[in-house]
Amino acid sequence: MSGDLLTMIGNVGFPIAVSVYLLVRIEGKLETLAASINNLSNVINRLE
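^ thats the sequence. predicted structure below, dont judge the formating
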């Protein structure tokens, strides 16, 4: 039972760690993208 649990953690832990790392990296880029879209929207509204 203990060996099975360790194997499962070994097999599942790496993909979880990679997913968390990528989500943290992408979060900052999404915030920047959202700010750029809001800025673009404001510029377009001023032109109309």
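The radius of gyration is 21 Å.
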